[in-house]
């Protein structure tokens, strides 16, 4: 559905997207994950034919988004980062206006407006002025707008940004439902978001793709490396250095918790240094209240990937 080859975008000397290539197959829900400034929005704007690339190629549904942008756009429903709604319009009026811009008219326009309002649960605000709606409703109006011309691909830029937890859950459910009949590329800097919604994750960092895999595979890759959670009271000892000197310990991240210290240890895949940690604690007379394997999160994957890039 999406084919990107060696895509680069430079803004006045600054490279926002640096020679990236990826594909998104029909029916996939792909999460575009990366910190602020990674180049997510830039890539999505290029794919939606709103922004020309500096070099490289991008195709949607087989159409080059630069040379055949009209054909490509017919397949794309794009929800930009800041949904550009008209605050003085009513929801119904706005959706019809947007539908017309996208080539719908007459009965087809009325039918589609009704369908997207049902899909996005907008019936109750049909005649409300957009400017008076909550952020959650406005976001759903943006989604309805993106879908009104029946695109098979949805490109959603941070669809849950600025929403409260309840609204986030609603939008997330909606996206998962849409994923049954659409290909979706959505961006986010919130990790649990992709874990809950996406079949595949592309991790973007400083304009480059650092990883592309299912959330499950990214996690199991990391789990094999192993991670421990330790909490103890080190008194005057430098527990961090002592822990780091143990066999099998690759990295120690310390976090003070009052008199207690909390440590996150990364270990070799083969080794389990829990026994030596216990012995060390007994030797040094450190009270020990936690010594457990930590469940790896996508956040760990993300930190590992984006940090190893700095090294
Ligand atoms: N119109 C622009 N002019 C100049 N630089 C820009 C422009 N838009 C984005 N950038 C820069 O490009 C980089 C990528 O931005 P963006 O694609 O918005 O990242 P993300 O969506 O991942 O936060 C950032 O460093 C940003 O400052
Ligand atoms: Mg962005």
How would you describe this protein?
This protein folds into 2 domains: 2-220, Rossmann fold; 226-295, Alpha-Beta Plaits, CATH 3.30.70. Helix 3 crosses helix 4 (106-119) and helix 4 (106-119) packs across helix 5. The chain is of the alpha/beta class and 311 residues long. The strands form 3 sheets. It has a 6-stranded mixed β-sheet with strand order 6-7-8-3-9-10, with helices on both faces. Strands 2-1-4-5 form a 4-stranded antiparallel β-sheet. The protein has a 4-stranded antiparallel β-sheet with strand order 12-13-11-14. It is elongated. The model has no long low-confidence stretch (mean pLDDT 89). The two termini are 35 Å apart. It has helices spanning 40-47, 69-74, 91-101, 106-119, 135-147, 165-178, 191-197, 215-223, 239-244, 274-284, 298-310, and strands at residues 2-11, 14-24, 29-33, 55-60, 63-64, 76-79, 153-157, 183-188, 200-205, 208-213, 227-232, 249-257, 260-267, 288-293. Strand 9 (200-205) and strand 10 (208-213) form a beta hairpin. Helix content is 36%, strand content 29%.
Task: Please summarize what this structure is.
The chain has helices at residues 40-47, 69-74, 91-101, 106-119, 135-147, 165-178, 191-197, 215-223, 239-244, 274-284, 298-310; strands at residues 2-11, 14-24, 29-33, 55-60, 63-64, 76-79, 153-157, 183-188, 200-205, 208-213, 227-232, 249-257, 260-267, 288-293.
């Amino acid at each position: 559905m999406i084919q990107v080859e060696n895509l680069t975008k430079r803004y006045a000397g600054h490279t926002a997207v640096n020679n990236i290539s990826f594909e998104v197959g029909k029916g996939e829900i792909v999460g575009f994950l990366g910190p602020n400034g990674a180049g997510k929005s830039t890539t999505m704007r290029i794919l939606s034919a709103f922004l020309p690339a500096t070099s490289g190629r991008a195709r949607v549904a087989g159409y080059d988004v630069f040379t055949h942008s009209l054909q490509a756009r017919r397949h794309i429903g794009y929800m930009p980062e800041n949904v550009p709604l008209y605050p003085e319009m009513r929801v119904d009026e706005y959706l019809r206006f947007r539908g017309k811009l996208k080539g719908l008219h007459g009965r087809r326009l009325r039918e589609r407006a009704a369908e997207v309002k049902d899909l996005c649960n907008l019936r109750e605000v049909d005649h409300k002025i957009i400017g008076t709606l909550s952020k959650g409703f406005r976001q759903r109006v943006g989604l309805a707008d993106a879908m009104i011309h029946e695109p098979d691909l949805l490109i959603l830029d941070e669809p849950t940004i600025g929403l409260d937890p309840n609204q986030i859950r609603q939008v997330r459910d909606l996206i998962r439902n849409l994923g049954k009949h659409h290909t979706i590329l959505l961006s986010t800097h919130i990790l649990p978001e992709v874990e809950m919604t996406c079949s595949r994750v592309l991790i973007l960092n400083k304009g480059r793709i650092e990883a592309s895999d299912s959330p499950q595979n990214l996690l199991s890759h990391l789990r094999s490396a192993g991670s421990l959670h330790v909490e103890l009271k080190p008194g005057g000892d430098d527990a961090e250095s002592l822990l780091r000197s143990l066999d099998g310990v690759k990295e120690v991240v310390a976090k003070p918790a009052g008199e207690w210290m909390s440590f996150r240890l990364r270990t070799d895949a083969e080794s389990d240094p829990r026994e030596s940690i216990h012995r060390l604690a007994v030797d040094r007379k450190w009270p020990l209240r936690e010594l457990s394997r930590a469940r790896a999160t996508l956040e760990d994957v993300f930190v590992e990937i984006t940090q190893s890039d700095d090294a």
